[in-house]
Amino acid sequence: MRKLMLVGMMAAAAFLLLRHSGKGGEGEGDANYEAPDLLDQADALFQEFTDMNSSVSPEQQGRNLAAFMQMIRVSEGTAGPDGYRTIVGGSLFDDYHDHPRQLIWIPSINDYSSAAGAFQIIRRTWDGVQGKLGLPDFSPASQDQACVELIRQRGGLRLAMNGEFAAAVEKCRKEWASLPGAGYGQRENSLAKLQTAYLNAGGQLA
Fold first, then answer.
1. For residue range 40-99, what is the model confidence (pLDDT) as tens digits?
2. Domains of the chain, CATH where assigned
3. Which residue among the candidates 76, 170, 175, 188 is catalytic per the annotation?
4. 76 flagged as catalytic
5. 141 and 117 in contact (C-beta within 8 Å)?
6. What pTM was computed for the model?
7. CA-closest candidate to residue 153, choices 41, 39, 33
């Protein structure tokens, strides 16, 4: 009963506040990106609340999460040694002091993108998660922390940790355009290909 009441309260609050929130780009590229809304945040809280009794060991949860993050890199084309300093389109940056904030024209989407790093985070998403977590720079360690938070914000963190691979990908598809079902008009990888990458990285399926 308590669980149902909590879910109902979160859903109601999310619905009321969502009416006053908006989506869309900043007018300088990345305009199609759909940021997590309050329903996503409520779902993330629900996932964490209902995962109190997971049968997966903490060690395996850590391995599953690391494998899921590696899968994202494979999907985004940044799995190589230069992944953490890769700018969308393939160029590299050398200064980890901050997100490179370069706008690159992407003909396939007829728009600019500022995606950068191992997880191809766009600059306004980076600004939000950096402020939220207090990240000091755009170093590999900071990028990893940001990735975990982005997965969590989409309601996929506990699913990824518990090896519920397909469900976690479904939750995260609006965060990474290369995931199946993203719907941003970019190249999307198949779930089968990404599951192979996940398993090869040491993840286990639930």
1. 767 666 666 666 567 899 999 999 999 999 999 999 999 999 999 999 999 999 999 999
2. 1-21+33-50 (no CATH), 57-200 (1.10.530.10)
3. 76
4. yes
5. no
6. 0.81
7. 41
